[in-house]
Amino acid sequence: MSEKKTTRPERDDYLVDAVVRACELLRAFESEGERLSLKELVTRTGLTSSRAFRLLYTLERSGLIEKADSQRYRSRVKLLDRPRFRIGFAGQTQESPFAVDVAEGLRREAEQRNIELIEFDNRMSASTAVRNAEELIRQRVDLAIEFQTFASVAAEIASKFRAANIPLIAIDIPHPGAVFFGADNFRAGQIAGHALGRWAERNWTGRAQQIVLLDIPAAGATTAARMDGMLAGLREALPGAADVPTVRLDSRGTREGGATALRRILRPGVRTLVGAANDPAALGAIDVFEMARQSNLCAVVSQGASTEGRAELRRSGTRLIGSVAYFPESYGKGLVQLATDLIEGRPTPPAVFTPHRLITAQNVDTAYPHDQTLRQAPPMAGLGSRQTA
Predict the structure, then answer these.
(1) In contact, 256 and 381? CB cutoff 8 Å
(2) Crossing angle for the helix pair 49-61 and 38-45, nearest 10 degrees?
(3) pTM for the structure as a whole
């Protein structure tokens, strides 16, 4: 039986549950010729005794399983290239370019290392993330990788995995007891803040009149650290910035949310420096200034250097002066190595930080030369652009 990467969404109307459970029974046989009792199969799969017995009876009648003796069963399905491990991955959302890059890189690396990746989509929903964590536990994965945005459920999710003795890696949002993998958020914010302050000093002789920080409060300490770092970097690079009125707004991490937040505080003729927690929020702010015909009165920095952020940096006359890249396309290699170390009991650090680099109009083509071969996608809006990095 060929072991392939399994992708199971939180809900799939076309999925036949009985077939899925039967496959779990077949996968429970770890070597050709292995003989297992009903009790052993129940332990390995988590099925009830009655359900496992009915499925075994059906598989036996179908010729896929045979009775080895009066108490034990043997699979008649040939196992090919059994994966080294089974890793569960609950991804943030399929609608975010950043999250898609993370998932694709993880799939590539898992396939190269003969690791079965069991995937779920958290759909930018706290309740869905909890349900997906429960399903990964039920499937008895060797390790889980959690990529979900909401700090409000991080402790609950971590507690469930801890109770099941399943090691946990948390991407971008810290989960208690999990190994953190992602941005050094304060440092990433500081890089952007330095760039914004230097720009204001060169172009406005430092005379900014307002500072706006577009945060994502639902992400908790993650984007809070990002915003704190941005403000600290700005004040280090721009003398007098500490005296400039500063407002922190909830952008919800979307283009629409960034635009809505900016409209509330937009005042004619006020030179405004904007630091955004991610690219969609930054683009929403730029939209508002352009519609008000006040583009010359703003300068914006953001985080992520995502596809849409890089497209904006290439646009003539853009007021996005830079976005800090996290290189999500390279997350896969680091995540799989960290997961392997954890499963095999090797020492691991409590946190693994990804590299950061400020991407600007001047270096975007060097940092991402292959972007030019892609057709520029239309700007993303609403929930489809929501992301945390």
Answers:
(1) yes
(2) 110
(3) 0.68
